[in-house]
């Protein structure tokens, strides 16, 4: 790979974070109408055609052929696809119990889990300073999520359940990221953009087929509701596919832990969106947490540079 493109993981990750915030907001709205699984499948079924367009553009821009497929590639893609389905469903289930920003924050404990999984599975090593940077940014996330409550906070149905769901979603997202990066690395040598785009199409195809079969068997009525909401579902699919394209390009260029740590800027986008759509506000604890995130992300970029 031409090392002159390595820096590209930074802007595409920031763009993917912004796009994913919009997709999460759309899926949160669709959850009430379609249920958790219905809103989850929007990301995959409606995102697949857009991913196909991105792949064709990548082939045209680079003049490349489709990469080959081998068994390790398929194993990694399948692992990533299944983990991402579980992660999205867990995240949306948590959003039904707590507000948009808090759930986004809990899912952003992913980088620490991801650094460990990436090291164990792919051998992605990180320097001591990179580990400190990731830990600092993640501490900022946890700090933001801590919100002392009055007596209603003692109600387990409004307290521990969304936390457990959010942390479980973060773990599943970490497994998915490692699976997809592993798939990209298993492809024969070729242009990073094509390998990332091809992996995205394969992953979305697996996810769309699996969810379509499940919904047809268990909840056939969801399909009609999805078709009735096709306009907003198309936007959800586009934003989801575009965000994933950014993640996968980042995975092709650097470790998944680096990509997902920089992706913590999504917390800032979620704050802005919450103010606009959900009438949220920023507390002192959230400001302290965001400062730690900025320090951690800035330190990571400095270490990588």
What brief labels describe this structure?
305 residues; mainly alpha
Describe the structure in your own words.
With 305 residues, the chain is mostly helical. The chain has helices at 9-45, 48-62, 71-95, 100-107, 110-122, 128-145, 160-186, 192-218, 221-228, 230-253, 256-262, 266-277, 284-304. It has one domain (3-304). It is built from 13 helices and no strands. The protein is globular and about 45 Å long. Mean pLDDT is 82; it is low at 150-158.
Write the layout of secondary structure elements.
Elements: H1 9-45, H2 48-62, H3 71-95, H4 100-107, H5 110-122, H6 128-145, H7 160-186, H8 192-218, H9 221-228, H10 230-253, H11 256-262, H12 266-277, H13 284-304
Average the pLDDT over all residues and give the rounded result: 82
Query: What are the low-pLDDT stretches, counting only 5+ consecutive residues below 50?
Result: 150-158
Question: Element order, helices and strands?
Answer: HHHHHHHHHHHHH
Count of all domains: 1
| Amount of beta strand | under 5%
How far is the first residue's CA from the last residue's CA?
18 Å
Shape, per Cα inertia axes: globular
Give a brief outline of the structure.
The chain has 13 helices and no strands. The chain is mainly α and 305 residues long. Helix 7 crosses helix 8.
